[in-house]
Design a protein that fits this description.
The protein has 127 residues and is an all-alpha fold. It is 66% helix and 0% strand. It is elongated and about 55 Å long.
Length: 127
């Protein structure tokens, strides 16, 4: 998974029409730090990511450039399961929403990682 914070940060800053100095002042860092982030020479502290995302009114996933990847995963999970019956969907959601993978009735699912991906997609699709 590629993290493209540098390009996204630069694009968001220009779209908002502010300078590196303004962003640096908001985050209490130097403008040189912001410049290095935008050039891909360094990354902001992980604690800064939610503040930066909020400043630009985006999610941290979108800031890091993984938001589109997450959307594609959800669409793929939905496409895998769209031919399931309603009762199968309900079973998946029931397990996903609290009973967990240790339930004995879950033994019919051989690939638990696949199930989690599918259930996550269904949970988003059917809420």
């Amino acid at each position: 998974m590629d993290i493209i914070l540098d390009r996204n940060l630069q694009k968001l800053r220009r779209k908002k029409g502010n300078t590196q100095e303004e962003l640096a002042s908001f985050l209490c860092v130097s403008s040189q730090a912001v410049s290095k982030w935008e050039r891909g020479e360094s990354m902001p502290d992980v604690c800064q990511l939610p503040r930066i995302a909020a400043y630009y009114n985006v999610t941290v996933d979108d800031l890091l450039g993984v938001g589109e990847i997450r959307k594609k995963e959800r669409v793929e999970a939905y496409n895998i399961t769209k031919n399931h019956t309603i009762s199968e969907r309900e079973l998946l959601l029931k397990h996903f929403d609290g009973q967990g993978l240790d339930d004995p009735s879950f033994d019919c699912w051989r690939d638990k990682d696949w199930f989690q991906a599918v259930a996550a997609g269904l949970r988003k699709s059917y809420k």
